[in-house]
Amino acid sequence: MVKKNGWDYKGERNWRTRVIYTTNMSTTYAAGRLAQLKDPELQKVAPFWMYRHGGSSDPRPQHVKWDRLVLRANDPWWQTHYPPNGWGCRCTIQILTERARGLDVPNRIGTAVDDPVDLDADLVVGADGLNSLVRSAFETQFKPTMDYFDNRFAWFGATVPFDTLTQTFIETEFGPMNAHHYRFAPDRSTFIVECEDATFRKAGFDGLGEEASAERCSALFADVLNGTKLVTNKSMWRRFPKLWCENWVAGKHVLLGDAVHTAHFSIGSGTRLALEDAIALVHALAEHPSLEQALQAYQQQRPPIARKIVDAANTSATWYETFGEKMGLAPMDFAHDYLMRSGRMTEEKLRQIAPQFAADHAAHRAMAD
Ligand SMILES: Cc1cc2nc3c(=O)[nH]c(=O)nc-3n(C[C@H](O)[C@H](O)[C@H](O)COP(=O)(O)OP(=O)(O)OC[C@H]3O[C@@H](n4cnc5c(N)ncnc54)[C@H](O)[C@@H]3O)c2cc1C
């Protein structure tokens, strides 16, 4: 049949038929398995999947790149990448809960820890966010300092799918206001409204509940929202915290992410920092023979790196504290000032990243001076 169809063999007899047969079999099996795994009850107890490369001696570079990628079980990526991915692909997925079970690690997903002091473990990782219980239980060792920026912000959702991360600055009857907005799903965007404390009070936001605030902000930003209403989800007005811990390790307790530092959302790096902290901790554990040495290495190596990003975030957040004053600048100067706000951008870097903007701004400055 192979010959009849004008095909040729590369390998031994039946090679082609075998590839077709095994691929069809594994695709059929995978489709059934995926349907099983998509059961919402199962996803609650096995929420994370890891892509594993099949170990082929002649691997496809993309498959190698996906090796060890961990995503939520309900991430749309799996719809198009659940293995096998093409002829002869032997990649698999690993359900992280099953892997942990294989290593004798008990899973207690969805269980709140109410006392980290008595946890029976060799290592306790406090990745429990801004209000970390692990941090507060060992506060004297971690030595945190917590302060707040003056500006007020409320975190809403929008049903407008914005194309790019956009900053909208507007003058209102209450004072200058800003929205940071960007898409996070095909039909949904994040919409963070920020203003100075004086504007917050003048607009009466301090006396408004979540829904009334959303209504007022929807009206103020009606142009950019195309008249749609903002969506609330614990969208209370807050001030952004400035947290930093002097120590990241206290005995067998270690902190990472928002539990140990915060980075203002205007540089969009809080999640990246948390993940990089975790990666640094994993590397330290893998590279050192004892837990004590590993934690010492984490304490020595990771904070100075994170501090650079945190400093840039703090500088960026400080820019927003007086954005109203800057709105009086010419648009080109305002945009330039905004791009330089974190202190990590230089004129040289700007020329490389955005040559057209840098040239336009230079021309604008030459005309203005
Ligand atoms: C308005 C706003 C916008 C932001 N935008 C961005 C952005 O665009 N990009 C970006 O990278 N970052 C952004 N961030 C920052 C980002 O959200 C955080 O830096 C990041 O979520 C920190 O991750 P984490 O895992 O350390 O903490 P969290 O995401 O807070 O996770 C902590 C987890 O611990 C759990 N937990 C807490 N206590 C307990 C307990 N006692 N027992 C069991 N579990 C517990 C919580 O349920 C939670 O799941 C933004 C922050 C804000 C406020």
Explain this structure to me?
With 369 residues, the protein is α+β, with helices and mostly antiparallel strands. 42% of the residues lie in helices and 17% in strands. The protein folds into 4 domains: 2-102, no CATH class; 119-148 and 245-320, FAD/NAD(P)-binding domain; 152-220, no CATH class; 329-368. Strands 6-9-8-7 form a 4-stranded antiparallel beta sheet. Strands 2-1-3 form a 3-stranded antiparallel beta sheet. It has a 3-stranded mixed beta sheet with strand order 4-12-11. A hairpin with a 2-residue loop joins β8 (175-185) and β9. The chain is globular. The mean pLDDT is 91. The structure holds flavin-adenine dinucleotide (FAD). Flavin-adenine dinucleotide binds next to α10.
What spatial form do the alpha-carbon principal axes imply?
Answer: globular
Q: Please report the total strand number as a whole number.
A: 12
Question: Count of helices?
Answer: 15
Instruction: Note the main sheet.
Output: 4 strands, antiparallel
| Through-space gap between termini | 80 Å
CATH level-3 fold name of the largest domain:
FAD/NAD(P)-binding domain
- The CATH homologous superfamily of the largest domain: FAD/NAD(P)-binding domain
For the record, the CATH class of the largest domain is Alpha Beta
List the ligand species: flavin-adenine dinucleotide
- The number of domains is 4
Overall residue-averaged pLDDT value? 91
Q: What CATH architecture of the largest domain do you see? A: 3-Layer(bba) Sandwich
Secondary structure: helix percent: 40-55%
Written as H for each helix and E for each strand, in order along the chain, the element string is HHEHEHEHEHHEEEEEHHEEEHHHHHH
Q: Rg from C-alpha positions?
A: 26 Å
Order of strands side by side in the largest beta sheet?
6-9-8-7
Residue share in β-strands: 15-25%
Structural class: alpha+beta
In terms of per-residue confidence, which ranges show pLDDT below 50 for 5 or more consecutive residues? none
